[in-house]
Design a protein that fits this description.
Elements (H helix, E strand, L loop, with lengths): L22 H7 L1 H4 L4 H14 L8 E4 L7 H7 L5 E5 L2 H11 L2 H7 L2 E4 L12 E6 L8 H12 L2 E13 L17 E2 L1 H9 L3 E7 L8 E7 L1
Parallel strand pairs: 1-2, 1-4, 2-3, 4-5, 5-6
Antiparallel strand pairs: 5-8, 7-8
Length: 224
Amino acid sequence: MKYFFIRLIRKINPFAFLYPEGDKGIEAVGHREYIGGNWDEIGALQFNFLVSKGLKPESFLLDIACGSLRLGVKAIPYLEAGHYLGIEKEPGLVKAGLEQEMDPVVKAEKAPRIIISDSFEFARLEQKADFAMAQSLFSHLPPDMINHCFKNLHACLVDGGAFYATYFEVTTARKNPDKPHDHGYFAYTKQEMLAFGEDNGYSAEYIGEWNHPRDQRVVEYRKV
């Protein structure tokens, strides 16, 4: 099976709609800014958080919306060969991450497995994950797409596998946009975020604050 050695994302941005999604937007602002900047800070935050939750070199990690490899450049050298799994809808981000952020020797030795997909086709990776991470993905998606992510992921996690997802939290449910947007703003209540997991076959534990620079909160979901 051929893999593209290949994330998506951003934060509240008053200029969100001043440049397009996809390759033109990536070219306009660069692969680091397109996914929200804070490259080293958020990459290290994710990696250290996962290690604190039990990520080991022998673990299989699924980076959902892996983009230009902000987490990948930390996780790929740490994990055993072939144990980093990524999925991303924008090939331009993946290309930039692989060519501009990854050491070519490390890339060859660690053989990350990454696919291009805009519909959460995790099964194409042909490997169940011990851990999955979606950092800021749900801050750009409407509820139907979040549910689709949870449903597709369930079969691709090991029993008891952990999925960590971040989001912008509000105290009262709001009407989010109907369509996803890489630089749009979507926010959910704690109760809504717990329900996404519980309604799709996961136990859900609210973690909340985890030192995210834009105050995104995090929830742990476990496959049951």
